[in-house]
Please model this.
Amino acid sequence: MAENKQRTQGKKVAQTIVRISGRDIDGSFKVEKALMQIKGINNSMAHALSHAMKKSFNIDPEMEIGEMNEEQIKNMGSVISSPSKYGIPVYMLNNRKYVENGNNVHLVGSELMVASRQYITRDISARTWRGYRHQNHLKVRGQRERSTGRVGSTVGVTKKKEAPKKAPAAKK
Model:
């Protein structure tokens, strides 16, 4: 969980780097800002998680994560991995009715990237319109295509280069 690199603050010994949910985070960050460093957790989810940690494990949201002990960091990881157990509402989770098991889960880090790649692969193999758009590297969610997002080619008017004018030949 926590790295051995440590810095001293007066009498307290604080860790400079803390590993939470597969991500190395600077130990000087407060709990809420540290949570936002993890892929899959935005600021509203980080706020909700920090309050759930305070309620369940008495972890102060204003505390720097470098000052936490191993047990508090482990508790933080358990709240991140299963937020619905700690009172986070279902509408805040990023994978409701997850395809693999039908449960409401919140994916973070590498799990989130793997799941999104699987969703795209499933759409391509099912030959949906969305899969077609992914397969051909086109915009998927209805964005404008006429003027932006072209891969490799530009469309527009090109002017011909003017040939240099020849000087009139001198008469003899």
